[in-house]
């Protein structure tokens, strides 16, 4: 094409860039000439044709200084009925010009599990009722939301003598969907015990990382939609969920409840997500029955009653 009429002197496009709805920023290098690429013949014949010329462009993930995450993580567990939600302003707090004021520095309020299924703007009543039941302190003004388009809940599901399991749930609070999404979690002390995933494809990789993606036909993370009654019901996020099982035979001494059962880093579509500052506390007796201290106090009380004249 004019002005490039010389087939031996070709100039590739420049200033390459990759952008997406949630993907991290990329820095792309210059195009480098490589061997011509082979591709199927356009006429349908069982043969390959060679491109006139081919170039290769390498793009690396980068994050500008001060950039906020675009996804966040919440923690929950079978032994605690409160959820540790995403951090306040986990993905940055937008400047408010109108509407109620919120506290951008206050710690987020612990939530009942069902509150994870509704948008942040619809959680206030549930969060305040839960704080009253649990006698939690409530700051004034209330903490701001996380402002993340995608959130991931990591739930420690079971813990027994020879193994344990977790449930990972992806929530999409955006209106657009993610096709061929992928997730990576770094388990510093538990990755060696990874066994299998039940609804996702999972692979144990190096650096204590487990890579997950949707199975064929189930690899779409749909966007947020209206509830059954748009006038009264909150909007419903797109959701994908799977249970993941681990064995303890390859990780002796692992303490799931103390923190070894929670990821230290989570990545969604290559973007590193904001992590909570705490894990669910183990306030209940691990045996599920009466605690040893409680039992001793009962025995002591009975002994004192019997010894009275």
TrEMBL record:
A Gene Ontology BP annotation from the UniProt entry: cellulose microfibril organization
> Which range is the signal sequence, renumbered to this chain?
none
Which residue ranges does the record assign to the COBRA C-terminal domain?
70-280
Determine the domain of life of the protein's source.
Eukaryota
Family affiliation? Belongs to the COBRA family.
User: PANTHER family attached here?
Assistant: COBRA-LIKE PROTEIN 7
Name recorded for this polypeptide: COBRA C-terminal domain-containing protein
């Amino acid at each position: 094409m004019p002005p490039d009429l010389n087939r031996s002197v070709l100039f590739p496009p420049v200033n390459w860039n990759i952008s997406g709805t949630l993907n991290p920023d990329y820095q792309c290098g210059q195009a480098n000439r490589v061997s011509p690429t082979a591709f199927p013949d356009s006429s349908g014949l069982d043969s390959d044709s060679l491109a006139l010329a081919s170039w290769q462009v390498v793009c690396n993930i980068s994050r500008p200084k001060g950039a906020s995450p675009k996804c966040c993580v919440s923690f929950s567990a079978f032994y605690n009925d409160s959820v540790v939600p995403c951090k306040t302003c986990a993905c940055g707090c937008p400047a408010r010009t109108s509407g109620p004021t919120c506290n951008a520095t206050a710690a987020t309020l612990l939530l009942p599990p069902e509150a994870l299924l509704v948008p942040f703007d619809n959680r206030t009543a549930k969060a305040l009722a839960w704080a009253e039941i649990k006698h939690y302190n409530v700051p004034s003004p209330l903490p701001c939301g996380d402002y993340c388009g995608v959130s991931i809940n990591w739930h420690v599901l079971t813990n027994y003598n020879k193994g344990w399991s977790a449930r990972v749930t992806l929530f999409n609070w955006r209106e657009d969907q993610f096709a061929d999404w992928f997730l990576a979690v770094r388990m510093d002390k538990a990755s060696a015990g990874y066994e299998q995933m039940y609804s996702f494809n999972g692979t144990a990789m190096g650096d204590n990382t487990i890579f997950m993606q949707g199975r064929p036909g189930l690899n779409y993370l749909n966007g947020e939609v209206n509830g059954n009654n748009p006038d009264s019901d909150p909007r419903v996020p797109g959701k994908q969920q799977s249970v993941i099982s681990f064995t303890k035979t390859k990780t002796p001494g692992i303490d799931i409840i103390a923190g070894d059962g929670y990821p230290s880093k989570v990545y969604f579509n290559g973007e590193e997500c904001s992590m909570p500052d705490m894990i669910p506390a183990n306030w209940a007796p691990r045996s599920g029955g009466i605690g040893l201290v409680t039992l001793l106090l009962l025995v002591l009380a009975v002994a004192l009653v019997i010894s009275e004249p």
